[in-house]
Amino acid sequence: MPKRGRAGDGSETRASDGAPPTEGLLGSAAPPLTPQTTIPLAPAPQPTDGLLGPSEPRSVAEDTLTPEDWRAAGYTPAGGSAFPELRAGAPGAAPWPDRMRTLLRTPMVERPAFERTARELHPSAAGRNVPRILDLTLRIGELLLASGEAAEDVEAAMLGIAHAYRLDHCEPQVTFTLISISHQPSLTDAPVTADRVVRRRASDYTRLAAVYRLVADITGEQISINDAYRRLARIRRNRHPYPVWLLALATGLLAGAATFLVGGKLDGKAWLVFGSAFVASVLGDRLAALVARRGLPEFYQFVIGAMPAAAFGIALSFNDWHLRGSVVITGGLFALLPGRAMVAAVQDGLTGFYITSAARLLEVVYLVAGIVIGVMLVLYVGVNFNARLRPDESLTGSVDPPLQLVAAMVLTAAFAMLLQTDRRTLPMVVLNSGIGWSTYGVLAYNAALSPIVATGIAAGLVGLFGQLMARYRYASALPYVTAAIGPLMPGSALYLGMLALAQGHSSAGLVSITRAAAIAMALAIGVNLGGEVARLFLKTPGATERIAPYLLVPRKAAKRTRGF
Question: Do residues 175 and 181 make contact, with C-beta atoms less than 8 angstroms apart?
Fold first, then answer.
């Protein structure tokens, strides 16, 4: 019988002499008894290129897909469409909005691909910079959309930037608050998609002009990605061309000029009305800025900004001097009506961007509702205290064409300053406004046409000449158009509708408000039609058979949605 070891005597009994020692909780420092066996590493897996086999260096001529396969899948063939002698890079000296809008309205299968060298077509040439290119494209698109550009123009700019940096198969998409872009080089590569949310909007047409120049240089392949980022950072840091105090004075000047525009009289009372509208608009602007710094939404800013003009108009009516209080209220409305958003909303709807158009129209409705609520609250108080508001005596008075033309041009200059338009652009904007208001005056007063028809025709000329001026300066048409349509805004019709509702005449009020909506629609459609006419009949520079033959093809319109 074997003996058991006692504790502390140093003896130890093993079940088998050849058993390995246990490691315990902390392990054993003893070397392993069995020798280690080295297993060779498995060979690296062969990289594959999707379902079509391993990726091997190959030229474009050795593509595994035929042009018919590419077209059936909805992609442009890697060698481009059957256009003779496409020039490498940007297609000639044609303006980039025309070039990219043509490509944007062309299906992907029909888009021509620019000729690229074998080095440019190598995956490593564009793969390293795809995220940066897409990010730069989104940042520029965000600035354009926040400045009020139409969705189609934003998509055209994004497509032009992607093409300039060798990303041919890109699809940009713009909605009211979200912009995105997707790039898929071929059917065998994974797509890369990036998006960006637009949360803040600001009307700064000086910055918009700088962004347009940046896009023109990028699409002309004159600057690199790093230089484009540096210029974009400088554009974002640029200060506004006009100080805050001057913008406040411009708001008052706009409302004061509107009193001469709708009143049509130049007498001693007119200057008192002018001063009242000036002070009321400046006070409303400062109150709106105060609540904006407190974080209140824009709707409440319009409610508060509309109240001082209505209060001053009510105060002028409590006397026997027959002061034109209704003119003061109407002048204050001209300083608040959202003409920029309305034109952009209608333009998006006419070009097929219905979601963005609906969102912008809803924004316009909310802003106008804020103006109506702010004015109606004061009007109800004034009507209950028997305020002597006589719009028939003030808004339909004598017509003085020279005075109204000067007032319209002054109103446009003040409106352009509020939109931060460049100083060098102001004379051309004022000239365009004079053309539009003169056309409206001749048609409405001399030819006795309907104000809606006269507004549409005048707005069409404003859009046409604005597009011509933009082409001459290689810039956006918004600075030349938005402020120029300011005198044509339906301020008096909107006020008459609100006053009728406040006095209990609901039928007359609805008729006036409907008329104001019709004038606004005619204004926006006329501006869009004038721009489209300019692009339709003007010869595109650089569109030759050798440089850019696809620009000679008739330009397609927006998609039809009814199946024919």
Answer: no
Task: Quickly count: other Cβ atoms within 10 Å of residue 409's Cβ.
Answer: 20
Task: Report how far residue 157's alpha carbon sits from residue 147's, in angstroms, rounded to the nearest whole number.
Answer: 14
Domain identity same for 210 and 315? no
DSSP label at residue 404: H
224 Cβ neighbours under 8 A, 6+ residues apart: none
State the average pLDDT over residues 355-368.
Answer: 87
pLDDT score for 428: 93
Give the global pTM: 0.74
Nearest residue to 538 via CA among 490, 471, 488: 471
In this structure, are residues 232 and 139 in contact, taking their beta carbons and an 8 Å threshold? yes
**What is the bridge-based pairing of β-strands 192-197 and 170-174?**
unpaired
- Measured CA to CA, the distance from residue 550 to residue 553 in angstroms comes to 5
To the nearest 10°, the Cα dihedral for 564, 358, 172, 297?
Answer: 180
C-alpha to C-alpha distance for 77 and 111, rounded to whole angstroms = 9
Q: Give the per-residue pLDDT at 414.
A: 93
Summarised one tens digit per residue, pLDDT across range 411-423 is 999 999 998 898 8
Q: Is residue 26 part of a domain?
A: no
Residues 196 and 228 reside in one and the same domain: yes
Average pLDDT for 20-36: 51
Q: Are residues 496 and 520 in the same domain?
A: yes
Alpha-carbon gap, residue 402 to 392, rounded angstroms:
22
Written as six digits, the tokens of 367 are 């802003």
CB of 314 closer than 8 Å to CB of 376:
no
